[in-house]
Amino acid sequence: MLAAHRDNVENRGIDGCEMKRPLRVMKFGGTSVGDSACIARVAEIVRAAACESSVVVVVSAMSGVTNHLIEAANSAEANDQGQVARIFDALREQHEKALAALIRSDESRARLAKSTEEIFAQGERLCEGTYLLRELTPRTLDAVSSLGERLSAPIVAGKLAELGVPSDSIDAGELIVTDSYHGGAAPLMEATRERAQARLSSQLGQGIVPVVTGFIGANAQGVLTTLGRGGSDYSATILGAALDADEVVIWTDVDGVLTADPRLVPDARTIPEISYREAAELAYFGAKVLHPKTLRPIMPAGIPVWIRNSFAPDRAGTKITASGRSNGGGVKALTAIQDVALIAVGGPGIVGLPDVVGRTFSTTAEVRANVLLISQSSSQNDICFIVTATDAKRTVEALRTEFAQDVAHEKVEHITVDPNIAIVAVVGENMHGTPGVAGRTFSALGQQGVNVIAIAQGSSESNISFVVEEKCMKTALLSVHREFGLGAPSAAERTGSLRS
Ligand code: ADP
Ligand code: ASP
Ligand code: MG
Description:
Blueprint: H1 3-10, E1 23-28, H2 36-52, E2 54-59, H3 65-77, H4 81-102, H5 106-133, H6 138-145, H7 147-162, E3 167-170, E4 177-178, H8 189-205, E5 209-213, E6 216-219, E7 224-226, H9 232-242, E8 247-252, E9 273-275, H10 276-284, E10 305-309, E11 318-321, E12 333-346, H11 356-366, E13 371-377, E14 382-388, H12 389-402, H13 404-408, E15 414-427, H14 437-447, E16 452-457, E17 463-469, H15 473-483, H16 491-499
Helix pairs in contact: 1-8, 2-4, 2-7, 3-4, 3-5, 3-6, 4-5, 4-7, 5-7, 8-9, 11-12, 14-15
Bound molecules: adenosine-5'-diphosphate, aspartic acid (ASP) and magnesium ion.
Residues 29-30, 60-61, 66, 148, 214-215, 229-232 line the site of aspartic acid.
């Protein structure tokens, strides 16, 4: 436990009774802080939580802001100064409007407006440098894309202060120490633990709620990094682990982890409890509700993570724990990921070449490509694997360089890439030992005429994933969701069960 924090707060018992305050890290995503009404709702949620526990808040940028900032940086590189100016004007207006609606005290509003303007001025200078050099480095892109969180955190802290909750906005660069991999930095947990505890323990001890920027870290030299798109979930669990929190709550715009993406499967249902492993599989295979690395930091300590709806805080949400609760039936949820590409390395000449597999995957590792699925077929003489779309171009280029000699001598005949595919994953820890899951999955797909391009099942048997043409992805999800009865019961089913 965060020692200093615990000692202090335990002594602040009411009427002499000793009070032990648990520590919660609460993260609010982009839609949860999307406008002034949303931020007001968030502040109420934090105020209520701060009555019963110590709270560290982690915030994303207001929704859409990070995309606009990245567009501004790309426009600067492309020398489109008009577009950069338009984007910054719109972002200024959005944040000024939020400030005007949320902060009643003239003094606080003026102070916040000044610091907001300083952040915008920094952003414009970064874009100007990019425009002059005609080069957008990953380091500069991180500096620009992180501005959204640096703008939203002080606004949320300001609103909390107006509600009488002492709070302080903190740049996560002061807390989360990462490596120097811009655009997808990895945390250095020991250093982060030291930094975060040293910086936050006295604040927490005094009952102050730190409002920390999500998505951001800094390397050992203090240079700003980002954890990758959607990385604020990861920021929350990194801090949860570093501070030995009792729980992490990820507040978003849906009721929890659902049996499938509700935008694709309208009758998807909220899962009350799910295991770390199941949730991690879903996140890894595209369930946007969690950044793929979210569960890594807290799994060793067994810290529970809740997913809850900031627009409906009375609903229970989903609890993610080490064991999860069994649903008895094996399959718990489905997910799909479409921003991916299938790369094949092959030709008759590769059969019997012992080093092709090794060279293929050391090449993907060298370019730090995220390999999501691997399948080898000896009849097709192919090794095929799937990488995220953003990694595809540099992976194929690196493979073509690696195998240039072999292609010239026709040992390796082709290196191809197909971006028009999707992976669908069927997830459930209890699939292990439940016979027939694969059979039912593939016959449901067959009945809908969905052609399966490749299949992979991990030895853990908590995931069967398969590759389909992108245009068949939705049909695949709907048919497997129906096959395993994952959806909300129909009105007729509900009436039937009431009668019986
Ligand atoms: P935030 O801005 O709060 O980080 P995100 O947009 O990143 O929110 O993630 C929430 C979205 O994830 C939901 O609106 C939903 O459309 C999508 N999603 C995809 N798969 C699932 C799933 N299995 N359960 C819940 N939401 C899902
Ligand atoms: N604002 C960042 C993004 O849009 C991080 C996050 O929202 O989690 O990717
Ligand atoms: Mg997110």
